[in-house]
From TrEMBL:
Organism: Chroogloeocystis siderophila 5.2 s.c.1
Keyword Cytoplasm part of the UniProt annotation: yes
Residues involved in NAD(+) binding: 158-160, 192, 221-228, 244, 279, 300-302, 347, 354
Gene that this polypeptide is encoded by: ahcY
Entry protein name: Adenosylhomocysteinase
GO biological process assignments: L-homocysteine biosynthetic process; one-carbon metabolic process; S-adenosylmethionine cycle
């Protein structure tokens, strides 16, 4: 459904889904006390007044709270999807109907529509961009150089987006400041690890109803997402194998008690494969051919290229939709492999993404990063900036407070001791 005057004000599935979206957004808000406090302050102080803002995020109940906070802060904000399969259509409807926030996102939109929405976002002539995977910034740099003068800065949500921004900076094309939300401790320690750990399994279970106990689960990548996924899969009784290319992370996985081996050795052992590397073709033709009949493969890392679906599609003799988000590929050797969520982030395709309680901290970082960019307009160097440590710690303090957990404070004696070099021996 689109609404038009001269330009469409939104492009969503169905405005009549708004009531369900409103209810679900309210529910998520119970677990987002830190962002709520920021929203209340923003409503008073209006730090984003007059700022045109584009948020390219998964359109979920949690993102709804971010968008509402940005609008409360005075931003003229529009929202587009950061993934063709992750949009919650009822949330998109409620944002348009109840909050007058333009949304351009439909679950299951094709690639052409996805990229058209990126163009619509840039037509908004943003001053600030919230990106998740760096698609808006990359398009801006490649196609809209004349708009760079409008840009105060961007914020980036995810690991792969930071990898791309670093490459842009290296190539001399990132000519404005970018806030690295992903690397804030209150983001990746919790979102990438516990968020991905839980929601990836949630997506797999919703798509397949698989019993994890007793299965062999192969987790490719032992970064923050991999650690969480392996930990939670073990917690549900799976025997977990980890694959890595980084020797340090491989040792970590070994000492955390996992078996570590190359994918070529893991392929015939696994019942379930989960990629979380941010890399390309981590599972490919030679691996599909070696897998057990009925092996299940999915991805929870950025983008749909961790699994080489092109080669799988080219060799398969038949592709059958066997459940929602579940396709069975029949191989020439007679065996089949099952791919979930078209190889896109399974936690957002088949489930609801991370739980609100972790997104509370991720999006508190996003809101404060936008405020920081605007406050420091003109004084930040082009390139990638960390979230200031005091902001990161304040988010953690507020989260603990909201959880009703107190911690110790340093005594004067301890403060002196840890700052001294003479008192140590
Ligand atoms: P990370 O950099 O901490 O970890 C990635 C790991 O993958 C590294 O240890 C790297 O050595 C390993 N790796 C790279 N190529 C590999 C290969 N061929 N085989 C095996 N291991 C390989 O990153 P992260 O924070 O864990 O994020 C991983 C991916 O997940 C990124 O693309 C990120 O954007 C995405 N992400 C997804 C979600 C989600 O909601 N599903 C949440 C956060 C991040
Ligand atoms: N555009 C890329 C982005 C990778 S998504 C892609 O679709 O492949 C990874 C990011 O999704 C994470 O960094 C996490 O912060 C975000 N995410 C996870 N659950 C979410 C939720 N419930 N709502 C909004 N964003 C979420």
């Amino acid at each position: 459904m689109t609404a038009t005057s001269t330009k469409p004000k939104y492009e969503i599935k169905d405005l009549s889904l708004a009531a369900t979206g409103r209810q679900r957004i309210e529910w998520a808000g119970r677990e987002m006390p830190v962002l709520r406090q920021i929203r209340d302050r923003f409503a008073q102080e209006k730090p984003l007044a007059g700022i045109r803002l584009v948020a390219c995020c998964h359109v979920t109940t949690e993102t709804a709270h971010l968008a509402i906070a940005l609008k409360a802060g005075g931003a003229d904000a529009i929202l587009i999807a950061s993934n063709p399969l992750s949009t919650q259509d009822d949330v998109a409807a409620s944002l348009v109907a109840d909050h007058d926030i333009p949304v351009f996102a439909i679950k299951g939109e094709d690639n052409e529509t996805y990229h058209r929405h990126v163009q619509i976002a840039l037509d908004h002539r943003p001053n600030v961009i919230i990106d998740d995977g760096s698609d808006v910034v990359a398009t801006l740099i490649q196609q809209r150089q004349h708009q760079i003068a409008d840009i105060i800065g961007t914020t980036e949500e995810t690991t792969t987006g930071i990898v791309r921004l670093k490459a842009m900076f290296r190539d001399g094309v990132l000519t404005f400041p970018a806030m690295n939300v992903n690397d804030a401790d209150t983001k990746h320690f919790f979102d990438n690890r516990y968020g991905t750990g839980q929601s990836t399994l949630d997506g797999i279970i919703r798509a397949t109803n698989l019993l994890l106990a007793g299965k062999t689960a192969v987790v490719a990548g032992y970064g923050w997402c991999g650690k969480g996924t392996a930990l939670r899969a073990r917690g549900m009784g799976a025997n977990v194998i980890v694959t890595e290319i980084d020797p340090i992370r491989a040792i970590e996985a070994v000492m955390d008690g996992f078996r570590v081996m190359p994918m070529s050795e893991a392929a015939p052992e696994g019942d379930l494969f989960i990629t979380v590397t941010g890399n390309k073709h981590v599972i490919r033709a030679e691996h599909f051919a070696a897998m057990k009949d009925g092996a299940i493969i999915c991805n929870s890392g950025h983008f749909d290229i961790e699994i080489d679906l092109k080669s799988l599609g080219a060799t398969a003799t038949e592709v059958k939709q066997v459940r929602n988000f579940t396709q069975e590929y029949r191989m020439p050797n007679g065996k089949s492999v099952v791919v979930l969520g078209e190889g896109r982030l399974i936690n957002l395709a088949a489930a609801e993404g991370h739980p609100s309680a972790v997104m509370d901290m991720s999006f508190a970082n996003q809101a404060l990063a936008c405020e920081y960019l605007v406050k420091n307009k003109g004084s930040l160097e082009p390139g990638i900036h960390s979230i200031p440590t005091e902001v990161d710690r304040e988010i953690a303090r507020l989260k603990l407070q909201a959880m009703g957990i107190n911690i110790d404070t340093l005594t004067a004696e301890q403060e002196e001791y840890i700052n001294s070099w003479t008192a140590g021996t």
